[in-house]
Design goal:
The structure is a single chain. By secondary structure, the protein is of the alpha/beta class. The termini are far apart. 24% of the residues lie in helices and 37% in strands. It has a single domain (12-133), classed as 2,3-Dihydroxybiphenyl 1,2-Dioxygenase, domain 1 (Roll). Strand 6 (103-110) and strand 7 form a beta hairpin. It contains three helices and eight strands.
C-alpha cells in the first residue's frame, strides 16, 4: 500500500526569538534540548532545531522568521503560542528555569488529569508549561 501524499512525518514548532542567543542558551542548556541541526544564512539569519523528544522546537531569529514568512506567505504573519514540555521532575525543572531567567507564572500544580504542571514566561516570548506525568 502506498503512503498517503502529505502524511505528517514530523511536528516542528517554529518560535521567533528576538534574543536568539539567550533563547538558544535557555532551551539547550537549561531545559536540556540538544541541538539536532543548526544553520546560518544570508543577512545574519540563524536557526537551531532542538530535539524535544517526540517533537522539535525550532528557534529562529528575526531575519529567519521574516525570510520564511516572505517565502511562504509574502508578508510577516508569525504569531506566538504556549509550548508544553514533559519533564521527569517538574518542580526541579521549574526551579532551574526560574534560576536561569524564566518568570514563574504558576508553580507546579497537580492537575485533574494527574500531571504536575508549572507555567513560565520563558525566553523568546514563549509561554511555557513544564509538566510531569504522575501516573507512569
Amino acid at each position: 500500500m502506498n503512503e498517503p501524499v502529505g502524511k505528517v512525518r514530523q511536528l516542528r514548532l517554529v518560535v521567533h526569538a528576538e534574543d536568539y542567543d539567550e533563547a538558544l542558551r535557555f532551551y539547550r542548556d537549561v531545559i536540556g534540548m540538544p541541538v539536532q541541526e543548526a544553520y546560518a544564512g544570508d543577512d545574519g539569519a540563524l536557526v537551531a532545531i532542538l530535539d524535544a523528544g517526540r517533537a522539535t522546537l525550532e528557534l529562529s531569529n528575526t531575519a529567519q522568521v521574516e525570510m520564511i514568512d516572505e517565502v511562504e506567505v509574502g508578508r510577516r504573519v508569525a504569531p506566538h503560542f504556549r509550548v508544553a514540555l514533559e519533564v521527569t521532575d517538574a518542580a526541579g525543572a521549574t526551579a532551574g528555569a526560574v534560576e536561569a531567567g524564566a518568570r514563574l507564572v504558576a508553580p507546579p500544580t497537580e492537575t485533574p488529569w494527574r500531571s504536575l504542571n508549572a507555567r513560565l514566561e520563558a525566553p523568546a516570548g514563549v509561554q511555557l508549561t513544564l509538566f510531569q506525568e504522575l501516573d507512569a
